[in-house]
Hints:
By secondary structure, the protein is an alpha/beta fold. The protein has 19 helices and 22 strands.
Amino acid sequence: xxxxxxxxxxxxxxxxxxxxxxxxxxxxxxxxxxxxxxxxxxxxxxxxxxxxxxxxxxxxxxxxxxxxxxxxxxxxxxxxxxxxxxxxxxxxxxxxxxxxxxxxxxxxxxxxxxxxxxxxxxxxxxxxxxxxxxxxxxxxxxxxxxxxxxxxxxxxxxxxxxxxxxxxxxxxxxxxxxxxxxxxxxxxxxxxxxxxxxxxxxxxxxxxxxxxxxxxxxxxxxxxxxxxxxxxxxxxxxxxxxxxxxxxxxxxxxxxxxxxxxxxxxxxxxxxxxxxxxxxxxxxxxxxxxxxxxxxxxxxxxxxxxxxxxxxxxxxxxxxxxxxxxxxxxxxxxxxxxxxxxxxxxxxxxxxxxxxxxxxxxxxxxxxxxxxxxxxxxxxxxxxxxxxxxxxxxxxxxxxxxxxxxxxxxxxxxxxxxxxxxxxxxxxxxxxxxxxxxxxxxxxxxxxxxxxxxxxxxxxxxxxxxxxxxxxxxxxxxxxxxxxxxxxxxxxxxxxxxxxxxxxxxxxxxxxxxxxxxxxxxxxxxxxxxxxxxx
Length: 535
């Protein structure tokens, strides 16, 4: 222990550390790691989006306050535990929620409040651009937000001189460099994998589309420069150092790696940047990122084409709903336990209830559920209506009930994944799982393995999260060997001694899930009727 403590203090003193800060949807987290990629200290700040003038947003004040408080908590841990003031860091990286829209004028003033990925106000623009490019443009993407603002004839568009994501904005604030990692950039505008930059032909198409509007700008000049993992994307300015650490202890000049999106940092944190691998993140929403060997043969509205931080194409299936309905049902069971005077801790409640799914009939006993708290684009639902349905012949017991809750949390995701695996014959050798539901061992892995029909692994680092993944990207920039690829750096250095548990798909469970999916697809007519007529 004393040797480990001595090693860490030396690393802190010499600046042989890397810092990742991620701006998630509910928490800003800072993670400091040493040269062995182990967490030294961390800090966080809770925040929430709010609806302002019809758009989901976060204030600039919260962005700066959250950055400073997450860093201050991490710094305090360093000083309290190791007795060393934190003055320099070997490398820094910032990540944030992918997509969204931050537009600035020539004075670098924000023209409209930050529009997050959660906004579904860009449907018309997304459809028109998808048709124009013959490339799926999701509603969340920055280019959809920009074009919708043009369609809306919003006054601010003529004044735009720079458009970026939240991660790109923070990076610019701290370095003055308008940079973006290729993974996050692929959520702004389609990427040409052969050059690791924006699709030039589509940029020309967009400029021609809006040529009659009389804008002084061209699209290429609005977008941040694209960087690949491992490249240096700027250094911390004196003003940036003071912005992070108002105590003026943090030194300027620290190199920054390209800013990334939270999907990219999730891939790094789960070692799933190689072809034929992928990861599934489960939380309020659920998304799968599968690294592709080849481009898909056609456009699928259910599949976004983005990239890994090192530029490989990725098929991304994103469903808006996952754990919210499970949480609501377990809240109801908690009320009952409280009512009879048997208070249960949260972890125990989830463990007891979710593990009931292992005792269920393979198909869930004929039960059916839709955990749609919000609309779901994959199944064509514009509004949420959580719905639980059974017939008199269904086997209605606790085990089947809980199995169905887990099944339905992956239902919409499964529809998109089947397009890749069954229509496009995409080969997936292994999926890595991470996110809140995986805190309950085995059961969620087993259900997901059945849903995806692929072995599912959960690494011991899965709980570290995207901020740790961002710190790894920052470390890769300064510690990689000459010509060392990101996937090799992760395999041979970061994850060399990190182990996890792999669960293969059980054929009985796979058949049971497929039976449920037949019921799920047929029952969508009931769910759509609920949206149209109930309440």
